[in-house]
Amino acid sequence: MNATLTVFRRELAGYFATPVAYVFIVIFLVLSGALTFTIGNFFARGQADLMPFFSFVPWLFLFLVPALTMRLWAEERRLGTIELLLTLPIAQWQAVAGKFLAAWAFCAIALSLTFPLVMTVNLLGEPDNGVILAGYLGCLLVAGAFLAVGAAISALTKNQVIAFVLAVAACFFLTAAGSPVVTEFLSQRIPELAQVARGISVTDRLAGFSRGVISARDVIFFASLIAFFLFANTLIIDQRKAD
Amino acid sequence: MAALIEIEGLTKRFGAFTAVDKVSFSVARGEVVGFLGPNGAGKSTTMRMLAGFMTPTQGTARICGEDVVERPVAAKRHLGFLPEGAPTYPEMTVLAFLTFCMRARGFSAGDAAARVAHAMEMTQLEGVRLQPVETLSKGFKRRVGLAAALAHDPPVLVLDEPTDGLDPNQKHEVRNLIRAMAPDKAIIISTHILEEVGAVCTRALVIARGRVVADATPAELAARGAGMEAVFRGLTLGEAA
């Protein structure tokens, strides 16, 4: 556990030692704010909640999270530091977990910096802050799922562009699977698949959270998705660390 | 005295290509083995397998009795490894990087700080301790990697080209450092520089096309023909013909 924590600290400090952290956070805040207030009709809706914000988060994470994960392993491979990291007396899963948790904590920091939105709704009306908290939890789980997928993809290649593009595609698949376009198309033609598509969609599940419903199946879905991809990540690193 | 490094039938194949072919040798405490061979002979691959970074196709290696395949974490604890090219995290400062390595090895914050200070003194890095590694020259980067491999005072050192990129003075310092540590460690260094073997090694191991073709003291090796260079050429080119 100690080794995980050491890797975690190094990684998290690494984000802030380079402009990565600041660019990511600023772009995330600008886009999430702009989308919430323009397309999301934050004011015109006349409701004291953060529904519009939560509905845009997966679409922002869809390309911002792969920008974080693309370097996780691909960069280590390119610099050769993977050889250094994996010849330290730490287990591979500890390195995987440390990197993932650091990226996740970083996403949590970015999310928490949207607190002015919470203050705004609290000033303008009387929102149910429990519901808002559940929505944030949902966003964090979506980030975790995207990070786990992106990190595993990053472990497959030393090319960061490939890692980015493939991770965006995978996250898009997880996000769009539940969108009306996809599910209507599928339910008209292949109804069985529509059910599956809705099942793997993170947007449907996030909608539940943003209404304040924390259901066990959704939490288990995210937990197992993250666990599966971290496990895959460890296996990939073990198999291909020296390639 | 029991050997600190034991390599048994170590083999690595990449598809049809055999990079390392049933290499076996052992290194006892006090020995400095110079690992020689042309580029692509399998030096780095052997060292990577020994360090637990590459999984051998066949065979195994033991560091202080711990099998690198079966018990990789235990084996790595006894090892100081300088990978080829001395990779480091570019954005970290020298101090932060070395501290990270020691913390990852399980040392407490105070213990890590003391070890890092000692290692920086040995490798003369104090002047650049707060500089990001990416701003340093090649020689400094190499010494940062070296410091990371030495700082925990491991009984086994595996150094892949430790003097590559250093100027003559720095080479001299690093050789002195290796000589000073030699009595209570088992050390393997790979190098292209033949005179280095004579200068620091107690034993020379020549590898060509994945196989050990000579294992002798540097003096014995040089005595086999007209000097070390001629013998090296004979051993490594003769096989390829």
Mean residue pLDDT of chain B: 90
Number of strands of chain A: 0
Count of individual helical segments of chain B: 9
The profile of the biggest β sheet of chain B is: 6 strands, mixed
Which regions of chain A are unreliable across 5 or more consecutive residues at pLDDT < 50?
none
Largest sheet of chain A: none
Tell me roughly what share of residues is in helical segments of chain B: 25-40%
Radius of gyration of chain B: 18 Å
- Give average pLDDT of chain A, whole number: 91
* Assembly type: heterodimer
Described by the principal axes of the CA atoms, the overall outline of chain A is globular
Question: Which secondary structure elements does this structure contain, and how are they paired or packed?
Answer:
The complex is a heterodimer of chains A (243) and B (241).
Chain A: H1 2-17, H2 20-37, H3 51-69, H4 74-79, H5 81-85, H6 92-112, H7 115-124, H8 129-154, H9 160-176, H10 180-189, H11 191-200, H12 202-210, H13 216-240
Chain B: E1 3-14, E2 17-28, E3 32-36, H1 43-50, E4 58-63, E5 66-67, H2 72-77, E6 79-82, H3 94-104, H4 109-122, H5 138-150, E7 156-160, H6 168-181, E8 186-191, H7 194-200, E9 203-208, E10 211-216, H8 218-223, H9 227-240
Parallel strand pairs in B: 3-8, 3-9, 6-7, 7-8
Antiparallel strand pairs in B: 1-2, 1-4, 4-5, 9-10
Features:
heterodimer; A: 243 residues; mainly alpha; B: 241 residues; alpha/beta; six-stranded mixed β-sheet; four-stranded antiparallel β-sheet; 9 helices; 10 strands; 39% helix
Word description of this protein:
The complex is a heterodimer of chains A (243) and B (241). Chain A is an all-alpha fold. Chain A has one domain. Helices cover 79% and strands 0% of the residues of chain A. In chain A, helix 6 (92-112) crosses helix 8, helix 6 packs across helix 13 (216-240) and helix 8 (129-154) packs across helix 9 (160-176). The relative contact order of chain A is 0.14. Chain B has 241 residues and is of the alpha/beta class. In chain B, the strands form two sheets. A six-stranded mixed β-sheet of chain B has the order 6-7-8-3-9-10, with helices on both faces. In chain B, strands 2-1-4-5 form a four-stranded antiparallel β-sheet. In chain B, strand 1 (3-14) and strand 2 (17-28) form a beta hairpin. In chain B, helix 4 crosses helix 5 (138-150). Chain B is globular. The A-B interface holds A 2-3, 6-7, 9-10, 13-14, 17-18, 79-81, 83-84, 86-91, 241-242 and B 48, 51-55, 73-74, 76-77, 79, 81, 83-85, 87-92, 96, 100-101, 103-106, 132, 145, 148.
